[in-house]
Amino acid sequence: MEDPKMLFNATNRDTGNSMYDLIRKLYPICRSITGNGVRNTLSILKEIIPIDVVEVPSGTPVLDWEVPDEWNINAAWIKNPEGEKILDFNNLNLHVLNYSTPVDKEVDLDELKRHLYTSPEHENWVPYRTSYYTRQWGFCMSHKQYRGLKEGKYRVKIDSELTKGSLSYGELLIPGKSENEILFVSHICHPSLCNDNLSGIAVATELANYVTTIERNYSYRFLFIPATIGAITWLSRNESHLHKIKHGVVLSLLGDKSPFQFKKSRKEQTEVNKIMSYLLENEYHGKIVEFSPYGYDERQFCSPGFNLPVGRLSRNSFGEFPEYHTSADNLDFVTPEGLQESFELLAKYISIVEGNKTWINQSPKGEPQLGKYGIYKTTGGESVQKDYQMALLWLLNLSDGENSIIDIAERSGVRIEVLLQACQDLIKVGLLKEA
Amino acid sequence: MEDPKMLFNATNRDTGNSMYDLIRKLYPICRSITGNGVRNTLSILKEIIPIDVVEVPSGTPVLDWEVPDEWNINAAWIKNPEGEKILDFNNLNLHVLNYSTPVDKEVDLDELKRHLYTSPEHENWVPYRTSYYTRQWGFCMSHKQYRGLKEGKYRVKIDSELTKGSLSYGELLIPGKSENEILFVSHICHPSLCNDNLSGIAVATELANYVTTIERNYSYRFLFIPATIGAITWLSRNESHLHKIKHGVVLSLLGDKSPFQFKKSRKEQTEVNKIMSYLLENEYHGKIVEFSPYGYDERQFCSPGFNLPVGRLSRNSFGEFPEYHTSADNLDFVTPEGLQESFELLAKYISIVEGNKTWINQSPKGEPQLGKYGIYKTTGGESVQKDYQMALLWLLNLSDGENSIIDIAERSGVRIEVLLQACQDLIKVGLLKEA
Amino acid sequence: MEDPKMLFNATNRDTGNSMYDLIRKLYPICRSITGNGVRNTLSILKEIIPIDVVEVPSGTPVLDWEVPDEWNINAAWIKNPEGEKILDFNNLNLHVLNYSTPVDKEVDLDELKRHLYTSPEHENWVPYRTSYYTRQWGFCMSHKQYRGLKEGKYRVKIDSELTKGSLSYGELLIPGKSENEILFVSHICHPSLCNDNLSGIAVATELANYVTTIERNYSYRFLFIPATIGAITWLSRNESHLHKIKHGVVLSLLGDKSPFQFKKSRKEQTEVNKIMSYLLENEYHGKIVEFSPYGYDERQFCSPGFNLPVGRLSRNSFGEFPEYHTSADNLDFVTPEGLQESFELLAKYISIVEGNKTWINQSPKGEPQLGKYGIYKTTGGESVQKDYQMALLWLLNLSDGENSIIDIAERSGVRIEVLLQACQDLIKVGLLKEA
To answer: What is the rounded average pLDDT of the residues A67-84?
Structure first.
């Protein structure tokens, strides 16, 4: 008997840099809930993983909503009374209110200010603001610049279009032995924001790549969708399919180095909640957060009419870090190391999902005489193999059809890697069979 | 959308002084478990609320008990060897052992002392003592006076009667749409004691008044009964009726300013336990106490053969304050402010009871597009309406038929006033219907 | 009504010294999982309690195991290069590896050391080591002696036999009114070790003696078996009988004075867990330990194919005290006082088991008028009888068929002695009947 092998070979891959490079490539693109920014993003992903790109026409009814007009933008700027461009969309796409209507006129400072958004708490940062469903025009600028604006006539120009078009999203199914699916969802509607949005896209892309390399009991579905309306649209088009979702995780805010948190699915007793709780509590010093109907797309998947086993994995919490939804959520805010650790956690999660079966002890009366199967020390004392032997004993004792591996890990305190290894050994000698 | 209205308009009434005035009026009357003191008390209440007065003859079997003889008293005093009255029932009705047999004789100090009750820990206070079921005569005096008694012949006189008569209690039913009832119980058997007994009577009376002014889904029953034997008697006469009791609260010790405590009904999972726990934990810094078979009339309502959802609301706990059952529980010990706050809590409780329904989200798949219903902000940022919007989201998410409003309040942490307002708004636009 | 009598009269017996004397008598014998040491031990027990001695032949299949060859030993020693005996089994039977094969040869120091076991952390103590299922020869010595060994030729001699024979165990059934049994298990396979093994044997013996003196609702079975293989053997031979086991307690490590701990049975909701938890938490400041599949024979009784309600009572925990499995677990390590307290706890446990019935209040509507039954004070105030009266009220309130006496003790906080006394009084007056 060797020391238990490290089952989580994914953790040996150095994928942090390739994820970071993808983020750098996607960063300049002006994404929104529809439009060419999304399409360009999906094209770049398609170079890495074979996603399908789905287009759903404006006006299509989707659940209680309808697909909105498509928004595209070419240019946007403000010129001061002296005719100097003091703000330019080309420098930073956050400068325009996302989904802004077009405008091209001269306004005095008072009128201009009614269309300006700033973040007074952080006066050097440009906030990210949207107005998808109320048509208006607007700009976002740093509060410092705002305070310096002088009286006078300003020229404002937003060269945008709101027209019938379509909503675009990307989807990839990687089939496994079972039709039951593990779902990963990331949103693709934010413009130049790195942690919020691009980190999720990058980790999901790398995870899809990884999943193709493993032996899969389950199928894996990856969705790259605009937030809210994208989830609504996908759910609307896939209702007959939803019973196959065994687990789901919404991925967001995974690029910094703050502690992980997992927001549980609304349905309390789900395997995704159990496994993520195990990992965060035992291996990552992370935090488990109760479900609430506020946040990312877990809101839609966990609405009462669906109530799917979908939670959310993040590092910094939604809205709880100062850089959130500002120009400071940029390429300096995320790191290859932060991305890599997020990827590793999710690869571990997948290993556990794949291995988390319920086994039946084939010699349940008394302990089997382990010595005769060659998987137990015969002389005493040494603690090197202590964990492994405890794993054997716990697996045999709790494999009564009531407990899966994750249940046994929780109850025993034995590390799940060791349990999975011991489990394979007990299967080999015929002492465990699948329930 | 306005800021959520204050639903609990009861809290604007200044009823503290009228409750205090009622206590002042009732204070001098010598009540007991039967007799004219109780009848006079009920007559005074009848001037305020239209109670029925019920008379049950002595000797009537009631559950394991029987209605005792009626006790009435005209006078009681002790004269010292010099012939001076040193104690007079007319000055303080606590001076006589409640339910004392008549006596009229000369006794020496030794015999007298065998019939005297004092409270040595508080030597200026006269204790309250009773002997309902063992016939004996006795007086209560301050320990200070007791210590000063000199040898000699004392004249003792108690002009009381124990005769066939009846037990009296008051009852008021205020009907609502439903036959299901909310029950409030206060005891009326204590003589000149303010917090123990009169505070409960006063709050119940004012609450009955208030209930007539609100739109009522439920019926409300108020009982003014002598403790123990009165509850036994009422239960005995109303067995066929008890299934209609949806909640009950025994009211006592509500006139001082100490923190509230709610003693839960014996049956654990009751709405009365849930709502009172919510209010005390979230709004009143009160204490929740587990059921025990010791206390006031919740003992009878929660006996195993009935096991009704009846708890008890008090401030100072039964037997845990020094003034309890002594002459110090007087008009100085209770205040209009203490009474008013108790009344307000109970009015809130009634608002929650009336509003605590279970609703069904009519658009349960995904979140409804709230913007189109006109009950959701369209542009972001401000936190003024944050609570209200969270209320909308929680109500929609948890209105799956499993959760009442109080369940949603507990889980969400959103204040129940805001939830009740948001609930009304969602009903108006058709997004919630009653389960 | 007297003050509640002390029901646990066992606690007045001074049995500590007789248990200690038994330990002193058994200490020199070289026990193992089979052989004459076990037989001699059982003979000595048979002088005190009428056990049956069962012999099961080597080679008998028992569950997943088989009964091993029998081991007996006459002598064992090591002579140094000068021909001096430096270690002798006759001085301390721990010196030989238990189940050692015979050997008689000259070896150099290197080879000798490959057959020596020591305990470096405690260099004056001789460790206890076994090798039941891997045939090898060996000696155990103090690490100090080991360090002093010089180069040269050593003579080693172990005069042992491993032959077809039998495994011996002792069993005693003391019948009660019911066929349902309370099982006490102690292991008898350790040689000169006092706390581990002899303390359990002594307490079980005295307990068997005690049980014959009480009125018994239940039957009591005492097993004196070699660990693991003995439990496996007994279970294998008694499968059809196991449904009668109502509770079981494995007894070990009961002779020192450290706090008690009870390791719960694997099945969570068992009466043995409830009663032991009650006793340890309320009366013994002991510790409750969750089940794990590591320890003494509870491992076998709680294997998933049996899953019996068998826990373990110990003082010092298995493997957690330095003297464990060394020559320091000797006659100085256990005391009559420690043994006596263990015995008393178990006698209390038996009293509670015998008294722990579920009763039904025969007057469940309202409180009965206790005064008329003569079991309730009629005048107030004194706290002497407070506990007793609370016991009456709790028993009446919770005797609805759902709660046994131990449940009522847990919920009420009233001492179980008082509850058992009050229960008897309520039965006498007809207010409680058995469910």
So the answer is: 98
